[in-house]
Design brief:
single chain, alpha/beta, 9 helices, 13 strands, 34% helix, Lipoprotein, palmitate
Length: 274
């Protein structure tokens, strides 16, 4: 992930009390809902979607919304758990399940908003078939997104994974690798920057967009939205699902206006999931 975040881990540790005060004591508390709803989000497309809601829909709905951008997405669940923010918007269910299990957090989904299709990109070849024997493919190094990347390659016949490997797949689970591909594990945010150094890279949709890649047209292969478990959702700490501010935001995030905004702005690179 990026080392430079609008809210770094250090700031989170030092500023949790400040955030609590700035949110009028509402963060992390299901009983006090008088202050603004503070939502952590990755910059693209999550914060952009929330900013649209804030600027065009929130006031009419009676929602005081504050958006906090986090470039390092690994810090958002801890911030939600400790009450530095009220909610977050950046992740999918397999990632959250893995995070809760490993970190002991208690974050739960509220409503699924969109899918960012994972894609394989290259500056060196124009098709997946053109990858040479022994080519190096960059993949995300967190367990869920690495498995997702390998499943993308498996679905498109580039490699074959052993049956039933699920969301914990690693290169060790590859049973057929006809091109003898090599895999370079990188932090997800670094994958687009690696494209000049590797033969191809599997890139998360949000990082592709930030790097001026157009998933709908630039990807050599791209995830399908059909029956896709990787939709991104609004999430809160368990117990805060019934916060009226959260319910208002959930309704706005799945409105016709937001769907049109996603379709117009991202042209298929981000897909509404409602």
């Amino acid at each position: 992930m990026r080392n430079t975040a609008k809210l770094t881990t250090a700031v989170l540790a030092a500023g949790a009390l400040t955030f609590g005060l700035s949110a009028c004591g509402s963060s992390g508390s299901a009983s006090d809902t008088s202050g603004p709803l503070v939502v952590a989000a990755s910059p693209t497309p999550h914060a952009e979607i929330l900013d649209y809601v804030k600027e065009h829909l929130a006031k009419k709905a009676g929602l005081d919304l504050e958006v906090k951008e986090f470039s390092d997405y690994t810090t958002q669940n801890p911030a939600t758990e400790d009450g530095s923010v009220d909610a977050n918007y950046f992740q999918n269910q397999p990632y959250l399940d893995d995070f809760n299990k490993k970190r002991g957090t208690h974050i739960v989904p509220v409503v699924t908003v969109h899918l960012e299709p994972l894609g394989l990109y290259s500056h060196k070849v124009k098709s997946a078939d053109a990858l040479k024997s022994g080519a190096t493919i960059a993949v995300p190094n967190d367990s869920v997104n690495e498995a997702r990347a390998l499943k993308l390659l498996d679905t498109n016949g580039i490699i074959t994974l052993k049956d039933g490997v699920g969301n914990e797949a690693t290169p060790a689970d590859i049973t057929k690798n006809p091109k003898n591909l090599k895999f370079k594990e990188l932090e997800a945010a670094q994958a687009p920057r690696s494209l000049d150094d590797v033969d191809a890279a599997v890139v998360n949709g949000n990082y592709a967009i930030e790097a001026d890649l157009k998933p709908a047209s630039d990807a050599l292969v791209l995830e399908s939205a059909k029956n896709n478990p990787y939709g991104n959702f609004l999430a809160v700490k368990e117990g805060n699902e019934d916060d009226p501010r959260v319910k208002k935001l959930a309704k706005l995030l799945t409105s016709a206006e937001v769907k049109k905004f996603i379709e117009d702005k991202y042209a298929g690179s981000v897909i509404a999931s409602f």
